[in-house]
Design a protein that fits this description.
GO molecular function: N-methyltransferase activity; protein methyltransferase activity; S-adenosylmethionine-dependent methyltransferase activity; zinc ion binding
Largest sheet: 4 strands, mixed
Keywords: Metal-binding, Zinc, Zinc-finger
Number of strands: 22
Low-confidence stretches: 131-136, 174-186
Structural class: alpha+beta
Shape: globular
Oligomer: single chain
Length: about 700
Amino acid sequence: MYTLRIAEDDVVGRHYIATRKLKQGEIIVEELKALISGPQFGTFPVCLGCYDILSTDNSKACDKCGWPLCKNCKEHGEECKFTINYRGEKVVISDFGLPHPTYKCICVVRALALRKSDPNAYQKLMNLQGNYNENIATEEFAEVANFVKRFFKIEDIDVKEITKIVGILQTSQLLVRIASVDMSEQEICAVCNAPAQQKCSACKIIFYCSRQHQKYHWKEHAKKCKAFEIAEDDVVGRHYIATRKLKQGEIIVKELKALISGPQFGTFPVCLGCYDILSADNSKACDKCGWPLCKNCKDHGEECEFTINYRGEKVVISDFGLPHPTYKCICVVRALALRKSDPNAYQKLMNLQGNYNEDIATEEFIEVANFVKRFFKIEDIDVKEIAKIVGILQINGHEVPTTEPHHVAVYDIASYFEHNCQANCSKSFTNDGGIIIKTALPISKGEHITMCYTDPLWGVTNRRHHLKQTKYFDCNCERCQDPTEFGTHFNSLKCTNGDCGGSMLPSTFLIIDKNKPDYVCQKCKTSLSVDNVEDKLEKIGIELAEMKKNDIEVCKKFLNKYSKQLHDNHYYMVDVKMALSQIIGLQDGGLPAVNDDIINEKISLCKKLDELIQILAPAENRIRGLLLYEAHAAIAEYGRRQGQDQLKGMLVLAKKALEESYQLLRHEPEILPEGKIARIAFKNLNEIDMIIRTLCQNTANIL
């Protein structure tokens, strides 16, 4: 006799109700085989036999269909025969370093294969919750269905049926976590998934293997093509505005190659091939031009031929211990070399903001231009043109963290983004120095699209000073205009009037001359001279710069010392709290060796800092991703100590933080710490899923 039966209502849909009184511990369901099982949609390439993660070294292609397997597995699922019968050509997977879009097909294809191999099981599957309905079907379901239909060249199955299967897998799965994978993350054809070189000329994000496939895909791609257009006004000059509503997390720019890249102006001598710092022991001079290289690099940039053609004698660098003045030439010379080697790229560069004007050109631009002209003995290029290039490089240069020391790059499309201290877009870099820009917030049609060109966790005075010195403009964004920084009191002092408890701020930070206003308590109106405040902040800043931020007790001592002088959210306090949130658990024994109070302190710190950054700098994906990763580890460890009753709930919270961390960091290159953490986060998500599933099974067995 069955212990349960199906019922249905308008609130929860179909569900089970007990047909009799059930005892505690009674087994009510035992299914020895799933209708469908397979890898997660957003997974790295895995063996389709055992689901182990694959790499180039431990994988082999199936002789029949091409899907990669581990070297221990010989057989896999229904997708093998399905690929042969429908696609008609082998699958080729060559990139094992990132989540791969083709793996979102596997569960769907295994379901479709049941139509012929096991019609009864297929009917059971199609009876589950997830019926396709045009009014409620999500864009994700339809996108995956269309991808499956194109990739396998399916003509005899309607896209609505495939979409319904995707919905069923989404709403009925127990273990599989469905996650949309943007096809634009890799250089593969959006239609057939083959390696692709040709890209959409409008958005420059989507790739195709042929003109034919681009035409085929246009009807679908047109809805999501170029997300912005250039506008211009008297306040910010040229900038981008959204041409359609943009979702949070949408990739809107992907430039795989910079117009110009090179060492920073004030750098120590570095290898011009890889940008590693050089010394007398690890360097060798280029045989052709004399510029020093590391012993691993044989070639470098356009400056080699430029030096030969213009200077006429080799460069000699013998002092490796200090920043070297000749390195401020390199980016300029690489730009000048484009005049002949790539006139189109040179024109794009010269169209960027930074036009030379005698009235506003700084001494620095002219000084560098004259130095370049003298050092390379240039006679056929006017100093004004060189000075303009210096300005363009300075104003539009992005610091690229994929080398140590960092280098500078100027991009074509990315250079038109307007600055805002509360930007709505974030940037990531590829291993090869390309740039990826995605939305950090939903953006309305007609809204300005912005990035931040300074450190958003600096105080307003330091941010504006840095922008004035490096980008040559006064920032008057909404964040800088609001002394409270959207109510966070990021620059506030605590009132000096006894136990008032109010916050002290000037009426504005935009006045930078001798007329700067004093700090006034917003509660009791007690005032403090701006000179007094600046002296105090300078002393605290010096102390902060000299302190050991990798020591928990030192950090806590600083926070206790200044808790009565600075607002809890003051940028100095936040700086130390950021350090503290990261170092708790780094000591011997890791998080398991930390007591409950400190674990909870870490969780609280990460949560409050993340909430603050979401207000001040929502586009700071790297910082938020690291905070959420640290939070997940602390939550999971705390849950482990509470016993099975609370463990599941804590793991669900940890998983939520980890999923968000992964989404924030997933575009970071593997060579950066954030990229490495993204890969670890992905692996940890699978492990947490398994633990939660086991706990659910144990609970079901108990019930």
